[in-house]
Structure formats: C-alpha cells, structure tokens
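Researcher: Sequence recovery benchmark, item below. Answer with residues only.
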C-alpha cells in the first residue's frame, strides 16, 4: 500500500485503522461510503439522501440529493428508467450537478462515460 505522507508522519498503523472501524456490538468491520458531488465530500448512504420521483411519458425519473436541497438548486443526481428498466443518466453522468425542477427536460444517455 502506497503512502502519500512520509512514514514518520503517519499516526496510525493499518491495523489500528481497522480496529477503529470495527463495531463491537455487531462484531463486524464498518465502512462508511462517501461521495463527491463536485463541491463537497459527503455521505452517500441511502438514508442520508433526499429522493424525488416522477412518472411522465413512460419514464420513471429518480432524483437524489443531500437532504434540504431545493429542486431548483444544481445539486441533484438524476436518472430515468424506461419500460424495459434501462437506466439513463442525466448529462450522461452520476454527478450531483443537475436541477430537479423538471427532470423531463434534461438530456439522458444509456451509459455513464
């Protein structure tokens, strides 16, 4: 494993880091996923996301953002599903950089580059 800091600057060993991420009540290692929305590093677990769902023209639109994000704020990750459950992403990416006031007006692609 490569270190980006000099060895004398590392405060904890890999074993100590693993010990800090261990839940003794459930006896399992715990890892919290983080995501970058283009502005902030934040938690991306589903219980920490605001979800807006819309059905229109044979598509299901799913919009996800940090809690409290207004629909008119560019902070949403949006995708749509067609009747064959093909997932198409707004702007061809999974970034949290879209406005969700009218997800039907966005451009969608089948794959994320």
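Model:
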């Amino acid at each position: 494993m490569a270190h980006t800091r000099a060895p004398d600057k590392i405060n904890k060993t890999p074993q100590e880091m693993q010990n800090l991420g261990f839940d003794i009540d459930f006896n399992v290692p715990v890892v919290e996923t983080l995501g970058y929305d283009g502005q902030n590093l934040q938690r991306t677990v589903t219980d920490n996301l605001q979800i807006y769902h819309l059905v229109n023209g044979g598509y299901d639109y799913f919009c996800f953002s940090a809690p409290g994000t207004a629909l008119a704020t560019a902070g949403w990750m949006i995708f749509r599903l067609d009747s064959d459950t093909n997932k198409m992403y707004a702007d061809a990416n999974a970034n949290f950089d879209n406005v969700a006031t009218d997800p039907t007006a966005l451009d969608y692609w089948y794959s994320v580059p």
